[in-house]
Amino acid sequence: MNTNIRFVGLVSSTLLVVFAAAASWAGEPKPAPRPNVVVIVADDLGWSDLGCYGADLHETPNLDRLASQSARFTDAYAASICSPTRACLLTGKHYARLNMTIWREGAFSTPHDKKLVPPPSISNLPYSEVTLAEVFHAAGYLTAIVGKWHLGDAPYYPETQGFDINIGGTLWGAPPTYFYPYLGTGREPGAFRYVPQLTGGKPGEYLTDRLTDEAIKVIDRAGDRPFFLYLAHHAVHTPIEAKPAAVAKYEKKLRPALHHQNAKYAAMVESLDDSVGRVLERLERGRLAERTIVLFVSDNGGYTIKYKDQQVTDNFPLRSGKGSLYEGGVRVPLMVRAPGHTAAGGVCHEPVYVGDIFPTLVELTGVPDDKERKDKLDGVSLATLVKEPSATLKRDALYFHYPHYYPTTTPASAIRAGDWKLIEYYEDNHAELYNLHDDLGEAHDLAAQQPEKVKELRAKLEEWKRDVKAKVPKPNPDFKAASESGK
Q1: Parallel, antiparallel, or unpaired: how do β-strands 346-348 and 71-77 relate?
Q2: What is the pLDDT of residues 245-286, one digit of tens each?
Q3: Does the pLDDT value for residue 3 go beyond 50?
């Protein structure tokens, strides 16, 4: 046979196969794109600071609307301090196991004038830990952080932990000011801070608004590519600064009977709510809402200490606030909107915590994850609860660990098992016991009446501490010597 004829026949046959395959492929439905993910983290926002959680001064229509479209969790928990929560959220591992139990700067300032010496805590999230950003990046997502990082200094910035884009994430935990150009020595004299990548603003520009602008740009930049956006607001952390018009609005609303009495803080909450509304509107306008998971959470309980002679917030009906292991320090708002999965407006009373966010998002998006690593996570997926809020988890307890000092607490650990909550204090080794079903405000210590329950929960707490290798404080010999000498 002529070689040219044989070649033409071969090409023709090949083309027929290609065309047939193409025709076959054209008839097959394309796989659905993986859902986008937006995680919005508020800083120091109390459990009852939102309208949908009972706020009496603050106005949060956008977050209330998101809650009505979401599974809203009433018994969600974080660490009592910011950096541990963020490390736990991004890795799915308990902060005590990570040995990140205090905010980053706190790791460098161990007090030596107290009865106990707190254990060392690491200040940089180790490279060996796999973050949500790394999992999503490996699955082809555009990954971005906009706002607060606070999990390490420059060699450990978000770019080293799977984030393609880092706008504003630094070693610092709070801005010097919420007004442009977001720099100065506003937090402590002589300590200059700034929020990078936010140039080109104008006087009066507000940080919460600007971070929202940048978050929307990330969504626009993603195009057809799925994205993981971690919008970590500095609001409503100190400094307590807000837009003057909003402050005036809340000053007119103040009444003696209200639990919330800080107009500037209320205005900050409103700006946070406006931000959420703008992000949701951008998703809706871009026809992305139906394929975007939105999760909102706070990093710890509300800050109840005074700032410039005024208490920042009130976590009523919960006791205490940030730093403490009472409910006011660790219970936080959490809502998850997952189109196609969520029972809109569902309210879930199952105890959950920020370590559950990692496996939840992995399951809801269907991104591949390493089974061996998955088995080592402390968090469990909440996907079932998102779909059916009345469901329960196969978990018998949640644990808390803050072996440090803070204005609201001495070193302590805690366990919640069912309705029972036990807090163990290290200075004098005493324990407090509460039944949260009957006593949400933790006003009635039942330890003396329930010694067997105390014994049972302390044993579980000790077992957990051994499992995660939790570091505990030690007696301070200098403090004892000073006490004995009468100093």
Answers
A1: parallel
A2: 999 999 999 999 999 999 999 999 999 999 999 999 999 999
A3: no
Q: Give the tokens for residue 205.
A: 């520009």
Q: Determine the Cα–Cα distance for residues 173 and 150; give it in Å rounded to an integer.
A: 5
Q: Which CATH superfamily is domain 36-395 in?
A: Alkaline Phosphatase, subunit A (3.40.720.10)
| Catalytic-role residue among 52, 58, 88, 150 | 150
Give start-end residues of each CATH 3.30.1120.10 domain in the chain: 400-484
The CATH 3.40.720.10 domain(s) of the chain lie at 36-395
Helix (H) or strand (E) holding 327: helix 327-330
**Rounded to an integer, what distance in angstroms lies between the CA atom of residue 292 and that of residue 165?**
19
Do 58 and 260 contact (CB within 8 A), yes or no?
Answer: yes
pTM score above 0.90: yes
Strand 352-353 to 412-417 pairing: unpaired
Q: Could you give the CA distance from residue 456 to residue 209 in angstroms, rounded to a whole number?
A: 49
349 catalytically annotated: no
- Of 82, 233, 260, 404, the catalytic one is 82
Overall CATH class of domain 400-484: alpha beta
Asked about 88 being catalytic, the answer comes back as no
Task: Render pLDDT for 20-45 as a digit per residue (tens, 0 to 9).
Answer: 444 444 555 566 789 999 999 999 99
* Averaged pLDDT for residues 225-231: 98
Q: Is the pLDDT at 19 greater than 70, yes or no? A: no
SS3 call for 264: helix
Q: C-alpha distances in angstroms, 52 versus 256, 270, 345, 423? A: 22, 14, 11, 28
